[in-house]
Amino acid sequence: MKLQPLEFEKPVLELEAKLADLKSSSAANDINFETEVRRMEEKLEQTRRDIYCNLTAWQRVQIARHPARPFSLDYMQLAFHDFVELHGDRLFGDDASMPGGLATIGKYRCVVIGHQKGRDTKENLKRNFGSAHPEGYRKALRLMRMAEKFGLPFISLIDTPGAYPGVGAEERHISEAIALNLREMMVLKTPSVAVVIGEGGSGGALGIGVSNRVLMLENSYYSVISPEGCAAILWKHRKHAPEAAEALKLTAKDMLELGLIDGVIPEPMGGAHQDQGHAILNLREAIVRQLDELVGQPVEQLLEDRYQKFRKVGEFAGDTAG
């Protein structure tokens, strides 16, 4: 897939084009431009670092939404192996925006599920732009219970702007489906790991996100509302999305500092879409490390640790008398 540069990436693209022209001219005219090429490469590397090491929250949101990032099925097929997709919630139908099934990661046989987006209009319509229907969350619940029954770790990959808010979803009780998942994941008697791989939007993300370990990719975000939605409410215009993104504290770094996640998975320079192989390897290693710690723990400890992890969310310290 051809990479489409984001607005803030254009200086890098311009330097890459100049470097390519310089190398082409050197080869075509048999002139040694080695010194100039080296200087250009150094400038390009410095520009990359200046941009990607100082990303704003809004720029990270844009990277999280990049259509060339690895999606859930990419990870399921490449970070995991022996992936066998399972379909249907046994109640209504199959939701293509929430694929999942049996797989192996490292030495662990597991159950994995995740939100799936599309890279073009046709695929996005099939995957409902990554916004799951009630049957998607009920399929996730079915697979959770299967993981528990067979003593398999449960892995969830989060990448959604939010659960689907349409009339059909409301008629089939989307809020009840998500609420039931929250309750059942809290008491799931098997190790669980959730990873935000792109967008982590609202209850749609949390519906498969209550786990013993919650991780985020470096350029993903996790938030109760999108920056555009927040801007529309507070500033009455979407153009204030960058300010909203900063105020929401939605980046992986923010989430870690607030104690809402357990770790950040590094991405290649410029984002996971720049080097999918590297990003996939990083995710696999991070999940396996968590499973090494969790698998084998007594069920009572898994449940207590998970309970305490979420029970302390929102706690504050200090004297409130006044």
Tag the structure with descriptive keywords:
322 residues; 2 domains; 48% helix; globular; 2-enoyl-CoA Hydratase, Chain A, domain 1; alpha/beta
Could you walk me through the main structural features you see in this protein, from its secondary elements to its overall organization?
The protein is α/β, with parallel strands linked by helices. The protein has two domains: 46 residues; 251 residues, 2-enoyl-CoA Hydratase, Chain A, domain 1, CATH 3.90.226. Helix content is 48%, strand content 15%. The protein is built from 14 helices and eight strands. Strands 1, 2, 3, 4, 5, 6, 7 and 8 form an eight-stranded mixed beta sheet that branches. The mean pLDDT is 91.
Topology (elements, then pairings):
Elements lengths: L9 H20 L4 H19 L4 H8 L7 H7 L2 E6 L13 E6 L2 E7 L6 H7 L6 H17 L3 E7 L6 H5 L2 H13 L5 E10 H5 L6 E5 L3 E3 L3 H8 L6 H8 L3 H6 L5 E3 L10 H19 L4 H13 L11
Parallel strand pairs: 3-4, 4-5, 5-6, 5-7, 6-8
Antiparallel strand pairs: 1-2, 2-3
Q: What's the quick description here?
A:
The protein is an alpha/beta fold. The protein is 48% helix and 15% strand.
